[in-house]
Amino acid sequence: MRSNLRHLLRGDASSPSRPEKHGSNKIALLHRDHAIRIRKNDYTLGRDHANHAARASVCGKLIVIRARRQKPEIKVLACGSAVRPTEILREIEHFTSSTSPARVATDAGDGFIKSLGNPMGSAALVSELVAAELATWFGLNVPAFSIIDTCAIEILMKKNGMPMVPPMFFSSAVDGTPRDGSGTFLSKLIHSEDVAKLVVFDTWIRNWDRYFNGEANSENLLFVRSTKLKYSLVPIDHSNCFIGSDPDFPTMPAPDIWVNDPAVYGKFPEFDDYITAKATNGALLKLSTLEKPFVVEVVNSVPVEWELNDAARSSLVDFICNRATYVVDTLAARLVDEPELPGM
Questions:
Q1: Which of 105, 140, 221, 284 lies at a CB distance of 3.0 to 4.6 Å from 135, suitable for a disulfide?
Q2: Residue 234's closest CA among 148, 295, 144, 320?
Q3: CA 6, CA 239: separation in Å to the nearest integer?
Q4: For residue 66, what are the β-bridge partners?
Q5: Considering the entire predicted model, what is its pTM?
Q6: What's 189's DSSP letter?
């Protein structure tokens, strides 16, 4: 049946054969047990892959992707590109959540800071920075973020009384409404495909602090007004990703149970109607273009003060890449109950 499907997609009534090239177009078939194989630099999809994809649909357990040849994507790290505070002017509010963050006013606007010495340790800072970079590359609308290297005023963490010290992770404050469990804001999203994209992302990075195993942290998902009638999906707070409840990043290869974790993360109950075959396919297509040199650059951007040694950095890079492959290979079958047929 699988070969017949390929054969029909080509519009050929003869015996099935390998997909043919048509000009600069190629067809890549993704089965749940096989990653999308796209030769390096043949297809490089930018932030909005929809501008490049000629056709992408799910059929049974096959994902059919047809794209146009694009120039190689130049990847620039997002940290400090949209906001770069150099001075903390005053503290505004303290919080007793797991990392004991504080809201502060800076010379680049208000935002939230997290520091070394927080109750969850330096792994939470590593997780925040790496996840924010990956989310930006993946096309999610996370708040602008940066590293603050100096702090001339004393700010004490409310949860443990420890002083905040640089380098600190900074995330810009956004005016949004936390998830309320209804479909009201979902129906008004300017980009409804972001719902599936977020679930794919949270599953990739194993983010258990938004929605996991029936437990919701609605504060970590905001709906921010984009136009008079439309909203954007804005995920925040990525302190609890990658390593589960472990306190530190491993220096040895990540356990197989992490890489091949079959759980779905971030899938709030009201998301079901918005996780379509097309949106899932698009998110997995983007994830399939992840390149290891970019991940190395992201992990190497972690400040040395955050105590991520060379062995741990190497382990994290491999985990991110191997986990991406696993998610691309397997997640579609678990997210899309009734895939769309080609041409439907």
A1: 140
A2: 144
A3: 43
A4: 27, 55
A5: 0.79
A6: B
